[in-house]
User: What shape does this take?
Amino acid sequence: MSSLGDESLFEAFWAVARRLRHRTRVTLEPWNITPSQSRAIGVLTRHGEMRLSALADHLRIAPRSATEVVDDLQDRGLAGRAPDPADRRATLVDLTPAGRAAGEAIQAARAAATERFFASLAEADRADLTRILRVLRE
Assistant: This one.
């Protein structure tokens, strides 16, 4: 097993993941929004209006969990629901104008935070890390 001094690759990876999660929470604090809500806003920003079940699929969470996330976003005026004209049993979810504005602001804040986080890496190291992470993601 490969190690970095006394720290294994596994331990190093999870230490970095914890730091990233912490930085994400800190970045989202001005909006008082959870990472799950931020991810939902990101999906809706990229893909537009969709069925609640499709949002759950994109987020890789149970439909019930997606319902809770959308409930919270709707309570805050960031998302809305409408019946699906193609299937009255289904519900469509979309961002409100306030949700779109929050999504753009969050995306800019996360991009800046990401840049600061990876700033210590040389461009070649960033490219290598990106390539490696894409391989592992598959």
Notes: The CA atoms of residues 57 and 63 lie 8 Å apart. Helices lie at 9-28, 35-47, 52-59, 63-75, 97-118, 123-137.
